[in-house]
Design a protein that fits this description.
By secondary structure, this protein is an alpha+beta fold. The chain has two domains: 100 residues, Beta-Lactamase; 45 residues. The chain is 56% helix and 13% strand. Helix 1 packs antiparallel against helix 4.
């Protein structure tokens, strides 16, 4: 096997590893950012619910579809909740939070009367965004890599042509034991 062919094989292997590593890191960062934003949103909503009088709060107007809000009294009884929110005691609310689908975010804020405002966000947007990102990163298959390589080759030929037109030739530059200015076209 020639040196050039071995270098090309190593290049393809290294690029594949870099694509996988970059995809995994991108996914982890985006997931962390989205989950952090969901946690901040849940905390904001819980603070707003904790400030109001339990009987005067319109919790359904504060919550997005699928979200649940409970306002409890000092004894643990649920004083107000969003429509369809399960649990009439603090223990029931904890069970509802424990049974929440993965990806849901909860927050608790103490109320001045000794009770709590508890929020459970469904996070449909977080889950769908992460699913879309993961599907996109996984979908970059062989066909897409061929298209990306062809596009890179076109750009490289164009840049080298511009350099040649401006300077007269590719300036001498040794890369991987090959002189780029030798006049050979890739």
């Amino acid at each position: 096997m020639s040196v050039r062919l071995r270098l090309a094989a190593w290049f393809v292997l290294v690029m594949a590893v870099l694509v996988v590593a970059t995809s995994a890191i991108t996914y982890a960062i985006v997931r962390s950012d989205l989950r952090g934003e969901a946690q901040r949103s849940a905390k904001r909503l819980a603070r707003a619910a904790a400030r109001g009088e339990p009987n005067e709060l319109r919790l359904d107007g504060m919550a997005a579809p699928g979200d649940r809000i409970w306002v409890t009294g000092a004894g643990g009884a649920v004083l107000n909740s969003t429509t369809g929110a399960p649990g009439h005691t603090l223990a029931g609310v904890r069970r509802a939070i424990d049974r929440a689908p993965s990806g849901a975010t909860s927050a608790r804020v103490a109320r001045s009367d000794g009770g709590e405002a508890i929020v459970l966000l469904a996070n449909h947007s977080v889950a769908s965004t992460l699913d879309t990102l993961l599907r996109t990163l996984v979908a970059v298959g062989e066909r897409e890599r061929v298209h990306i390589a062809a596009a890179r080759a076109r750009v490289r030929r164009r840049v080298w042509a511009l350099i040649s037109d401006r300077v007269g030739r590719i300036p001498p530059s040794k890369v991987a034991d090959v002189d780029l200015g030798s006049g050979r076209r890739w």
